Amino acid sequence: MxxxxxxxxxxxxxxxxxxxxxxSSCGCGSTSGGCGSHNAPPKKEPVxSSCGCGSTSxxxxxxxxxKNEYLITAEEFDAAVEGTMVGETRKDGFQQVFDVKMDRxxxxxxxxxxxxxxxxxxxxxxxxxxxxxxxxxxxxxWEEQFKGNYKLMTQEExxxxxDRLVRSYQLRKKENxxxxxxxxxxxxxxxxxxxxxxxxxxxxxxxxxxxxxxxDRNSQMQYIRIHEMxxxxxxxxxxxxxxxxxxxxxxxxxxxxxxxxxxxxxxxxDVCPVEATWREEDGLVVIDYxxxxxxxxxxxxxPYDGRRFNWSKPEVPEAEVNKNQHxxxxxxxxxxxxxxxxxxxxxxxxxxxxxxxxxxxxxARIFGNLLDPDSTIRWVLENKQVFRLxxxxxxxxxxxxxxx
Amino acid sequence: METFRAFxxxxxxxxxxxxxxSKVYHVWMFFLSxxxxxxxxxxxxxxxxxxxxxxxxDRVSWGLYISNFTFLVGVAxxxxxxxxxxxxxxxxxxxxxxxxxxxxxxxxxxxxxxxxVADMGGPxxxxxxxxxxxxxxxxxxxxxxxxxxxxxxxFINITIPLYILFxxxxxxxxxxxxxxxxxxxxxxxxxxxxxxxxxxxxxLQARPFWNNALLGPRFLASAFAAGPALIILVLAAIRKFSxxxxxxxxxxxxxxxxTVAAQINLIxxxxxxxxxxxxxxxxxxxxxxxxxxxxxKTALLPWIWTAIPLxxxxxxLLTFHKLRNNLNxxxxxxxxxxxxxxxxKGFGLIVPGFIPGPYGKIAEYTPTWVEIWVTLGIWALxxxxxxxxxxxxxxxxxxxxxxxxxRAVQTETT
Lengths: 404, 414
Ligand code: SF4
Ligand code: SF4
What we know:
The complex is a heterodimer of chains A (about 400) and B (about 425).
Chain A: H1 28-31, H2 53-60, H3 74-85, H4 106-112, H5 116-125, H6 132-145, H7 155-173, E1 178-180, E2 190-195, H8 204-212, E3 225-230, E4 253-258, H9 267-271, E5 277-279, E6 285-287, H10 297-301, E7 307-309, E8 324-326, E9 338-340, H11 345-348, H12 355-359, E10 365-369, H13 376-383, E11 399-402
Parallel strand pairs in A: 1-8, 2-11
Antiparallel strand pairs in A: 2-10, 3-4, 5-6, 7-9
Helix pairs in contact in A: 5-6, 6-7
Chain B: H1 2-18, H2 23-49, H3 64-78, H4 80-88, H5 95-119, H6 142-169, H7 176-202, H8 215-241, H9 248-278, H10 285-292, H11 301-319, H12 321-324, H13 327-345, H14 347-354, H15 369-397, H16 406-412
Helix pairs in contact in B: 2-15, 3-5, 3-7, 3-8, 3-14, 4-5, 4-7, 5-6, 5-8, 5-15, 6-7, 7-8, 8-9, 8-13, 9-11, 9-13, 10-14, 11-13, 13-14
Bound molecules: iron/sulfur cluster (2 copies).
């Protein structure tokens, strides 16, 4: 790698702890990267003895990495990829049936209606007649309406709003949800790679994503789009079909998925007038749904069709609600706010792969920590001919494509 | 204290004055109120259902509201074309026209803000935008710049005429020392609201149709054609319906401004078309869609092919002094130009920005009735506000409204 790191100008190394050694004079440090999780380190040139490799071999010691090995074969890589997916393609977590009817209380609607401010005041002051629960609900709604921007909250405030939301859900739906507010961990920068040769257009990723992230079922919102393109014509997105309903893989076609690319220099973030969307430390571009005013400027600014808007009140049948939530991720949204792929923040921050990665039956999707030299994603970036879409725009997406 | 009392009296007098008038006036105001009420009813539907009540989708996420907003910023800035010569260059001719122009600017700005609010997904949390209380992403977001310049411009355009009218109301001359600096500021400011609004779109690398250095200058040129064109039409109406004297000379001078701006606008249009169609690139697809349609999707064709001929015809007619100096032809030209630019700088600019989408998807946009009625409602609101402002300032300028001369008001308004 070294200074020839043209395909990605991010610096994996600087101030990110000792786990990373991108010493420019030494090819080995990063090259040995992918090795850990796989069988062998792909290495062409022998390790230079004098430089950063020392620390690398230290780091790899636990993986019993032999030095001076040769390139990993494609088969081995495939096996490794499949290994990460085994047994996880079939999930039934969301099929459980909860026997709670959809209870859209009038009070709730009134409170969340546009002129909530006045209504909230009335509700609170009418506490004499209202029951304890109603009072609590009103109190929660009041505090929720006037809370600040999540990005600027202290740890306590973050926890407080999460607690309120959980309690509010409990009061309304008589169901418990789990909501976390996990912050980005150090030395993590998430990245994603997509294998065009593998994708067969099954769209398992899309359905897994919809279920995982509680997306509106009425409007059939999807973060991911799979573009079906004709073989032999290259990437002709404008002639591709991103909304097909036929058996796949269709002969003479190949498939390519797009979603939010979590740009490292995201134009969507710059344009937001209220800083309702921002880039987290671990590279995820997130939205505070409660702070968003729904101007859709970010949508116009995104060159990758990454954002989705709640044009009407999103509805998810109670039985299908994923109750394992994150404040910045798949918690329930309301109408008139922006949302998008978060690389399943509720999963990725607790060490899992996003739902799409897990659901893909072909292993076309690779996800991992770009700062971890042993991660699969790093191996792909360093050993495959990767490219990104619309690089000329300077947005530095953290989403690469490659072919076998 | 005396000043304060005079001010209260002016407010009272104005309210009295605008609630009385001729039959035509009452019918007109009643008609506008009706449209506003219908618009509000449809806005209530939109609030209840969400923006799905509009024709906008994830593929075309801005529509009629933002189009009208963009166009009206131009109209608002047009007042400056009258302010400059009157206050700064001491051209007496324009003095009466300018109060009307600034009234127009105020009405247009209020419409702008109304359109932005109508377009919001969460109007109840708009306070997030208020600096200090909310989070104001300045200077990174051009939208925050726009909020600043629009509100600042609104403030300037309210205070200057208010000051002048208030002085006149008291029977005193307005002090040039006070209002001239304000006027110069408003001149610069008007260019600012334009450029900033253009930058709103120009700064998006994601949308090649907008990401074009000519967008800002073209905004200016088209606005300085459409705005004064509207002012001419309004002055013509005022001449007809009130005793306010507006000389032919004033109208003809404004017509000159319209003509020059329209000519410059046309030159830029040619330059733009040349670039898009002589050596078409991938980035010319939006222009193709706008002018010829793509893949059989042709929703904008009738609009743009109405706008372009109107624009060209009006500009050619205006170019000939003989024709321009014939007031009837002038009014027709102004009307044509206004419509043409409304289309061109409205959804002829906004909608093709989204078509084709980032990956070439062509999804068309058709406004729904909810959207159309809300839009009409906001235009009616603007007309309503403008009528009130114009009537008051005409009343004061004609001397019908004077401090301690209330009797005159009552006799006039029977
Ligand atoms: S892909 Fe679009 S939404 Fe995602 S970070 Fe980049 S610009 Fe923002
Ligand atoms: S829609 Fe929401 S997130 Fe997007 S720019 Fe507007 S306020 Fe920010």
